[in-house]
Amino acid sequence: MTTCHPIYLDCDTGIDDALALAYLLASPLASVVGIGTVSGNVSAAVGARNTLDLLDLAGAADVPVALGAHDPLAGSFHGGAPWVHGSNGVGEVELPASGASLAAESAAEMLVRLARLYPGELRVAAIGPLTNLAQALRLEPLLPSLVESVTVMGGAALAPGNITPVAAANIWHDPEAAALVLAADWDVTLVPLDVTMASVLEETHRQSLLASSAPVPRALGETLGYYFRFYEGIYGRPCSTMHDPLAAALAVGAVKTALAPVVRAAVDTSDGPGRGQTACDMRGLYAGYPPVGGARCRVVRSLEDDFAPHLMETLLSPVVEPAEFEPAWVR
Amino acid sequence: MTTCHPIYLDCDTGIDDALALAYLLASPLASVVGIGTVSGNVSAAVGARNTLDLLDLAGAADVPVALGAHDPLAGSFHGGAPWVHGSNGVGEVELPASGASLAAESAAEMLVRLARLYPGELRVAAIGPLTNLAQALRLEPLLPSLVESVTVMGGAALAPGNITPVAAANIWHDPEAAALVLAADWDVTLVPLDVTMASVLEETHRQSLLASSAPVPRALGETLGYYFRFYEGIYGRPCSTMHDPLAAALAVGAVKTALAPVVRAAVDTSDGPGRGQTACDMRGLYAGYPPVGGARCRVVRSLEDDFAPHLMETLLSPVVEPAEFEPAWVR
Questions:
Q1: What pLDDT digit, counting tens, does each position of B151-194 carry?
Q2: Under CATH, domain A5-318 is a member of which superfamily?
Q3: Residues of B with CB below 8 A from A240's CB?
Q4: Do A271 and B275 lie within an 8 Å CB cutoff?
Q5: What residue segments make up the domains of chain A, in order of their start?
Q6: Could you please report the per-residue DSSP string of B186-224?
Q7: B299 in helix, strand or coil?
Q8: What is the CA radius of gyration of chain B?
Q9: DSSP assignment, residue B123?
Q10: Is B271 touching A (CB cutoff 8 A)?
Q11: Beta strand B302-303 with B257-259: parallel, antiparallel or unpaired?
Q12: Gap between the Cα atoms of A134 and A71, Å rounded
């Protein structure tokens, strides 16, 4: 018996968001009960379109998708990262268009509704900027006591940033929202570049996806071609990180961390060169991170095992029909 | 034949500054031609007092010492770090009082004078806040073309800060000065916490200093008792880093670096949580730091060899009388 967790996924789909979504749909530990989109890699609207198309391709068109915030809490959407994800967010691959519609509620409203529906059980996997989560905290101040945990892909603790020397994209796109999310009184895990940049998918993995008989792995393999070309400029060879699927796997408890200290973390919302940085207080490093007062943010720095084999195994596993799926939280 | 370099030392003496000073006086690669003090670990005046006393103890009372800036470029001196260095800066050890006087010039004036005296040859080792160097840049805009190199102990590239989660003390004490120094067009090397926190002096080393028949190593061993107690809270055992002597050794070329990429570096002078951070652009990490346009700051991340044996050997070597010493730069 494994426990299956109800998951709310907040995403900006995105090539690695697509990997995370496919991973969660295939994982026996997860039941995706709702998805909200936010502007980041692409606009919230384009991300929603990609999410609907991917769900349809996966035979999971019944998973509700809510449109979330187009603009960050302060300022306006920066226009995404077409040089990383392609102009359509999925590496210029044309996915079959889903006929499904978006939910009538906003992403923040969906998160609040699901948190009330599954009190103490909902796990939030946030793999885009944190605007929707911040809005949900405003809608329902009791949200932190309603959700089981929040896992955020973002930040850079002792690793370089990716959008500035010190800031990671998901935080930099909406530092004000990230500051609210990291300050809220919930069980929050940060999955920063420290660990995601060390988790690499190689060309052999991509070829395995392309060789699959199932449509979702094949589509992922195709979109990864674009992503690999971007990361060739970073790593010097065609490959990619697994930012978002790693955060998804950590959210459902499918992978073990080797080092994940609980530290104080603050988001830089200044207009200085530190804007968007997650200033994690890692000063306990030299003594094995002894407990410190006020520390509440778990920062994943390393994993027990390489993530790629688990991701590949899950993505290439026989599809579990959503209808056959009985989550443990169904009473 | 080894080349002996004329060195201007800018310091805030300080227990590890004392180690750096003793190291430079004992090194056959260095001829200390002038010393300026600045507020940091202690006030500039207390640092000058300690420097004169140490020089006298080392039989080097002829090395000129100039008082430098008491206050940073913006704001005022924070009061030092008595919990690290003791209220007198040398771990509450009473050094024999020197009868020597301070130079009539300021530290910035001394640096400019020495740079003109040894054009293209002077090496600057800056192991305190960078106020004096910034003032010297204002006094003599051609300073960058006059000095051979500048080696700065400070910053944190991919390591935690020590005075805030992201800032190292020497930079945080005067970020505006550090910004000017890192922006100037000279050969600048940053010796950050990344490498200094990995260079540790143990209790056995301290005992060797205490067992010396020479007064300087014995005094250093005594002062280190206080420093070790502070660092016991950081490392979980009595020991200490070698921040300043490591920067001094790198300044004279006595130790080899294993990894020292040349990157873009900016100092955070905002009032946000990043204030005092050296935002080094380490994004080339994953491809072995390929050359990037505009990169001018060498950031030492690791050494070829453990620094402690070299430091100990130099500190415990027979004293070379300054008078017997003929630097290569004497024409």
A1: 999 999 999 999 999 999 999 999 999 999 999 999 999 999 99
A2: Ribonucleoside hydrolase-like (3.90.245.10)
A3: none
A4: no
A5: 5-318
A6: S-EEEE-HHHHTT-EEEHHHHHHHHT-SSHHHHHHHHHH
A7: strand
A8: 18
A9: E
A10: yes
A11: antiparallel
A12: 12
* Domain B5-324: assigned CATH number: 3.90.245.10
Residue whose C-alpha is closest to residue A95's, from A242, A223, A244:
A223
Residue B9's beta-bridge partner residues? B35, B125
Question: CB of A324 within 8 A of CB of A180?
Answer: no
Residue B3 pLDDT: 82
Predicted pLDDT at B327: 46
The reported pLDDT for the residue numbered A100 is 97
* pTM listed for this prediction: 0.92
Query: What one-character-per-residue DSSP string does A151-210 give?
Result: EEE---SSS--SSSSS--HHHHT-HHHHHHHHHSSS-EEEE-HHHHTT-EEEHHHHHHHH
Element (H, E) at A265: strand A265-267
Encoded tokens for B151: 């080696």
- Is residue B304 packed enough to be buried (19+ CB in 10 Å), middle (13-18) or exposed (0-12)? exposed
H/E segment holding residue B34: strand B30-37
Cβ distance A283 to B161 less than 8 Å, yes or no, reads yes
- Predicted ipTM of the assembly: 0.90
Residue of A185, A145, A173 whose CA lies nearest to A278? A173
Contact B266 A275 (CB under 8 A): no
Number of residues that make up chain A: 331
| Cα A3 to Cα A6, A113, A251, A329, distances in angstroms | 10, 22, 13, 8
Q: Tell whether omega for the bond before B14 is within 30 degrees of 0, i.e. cis.
A: yes
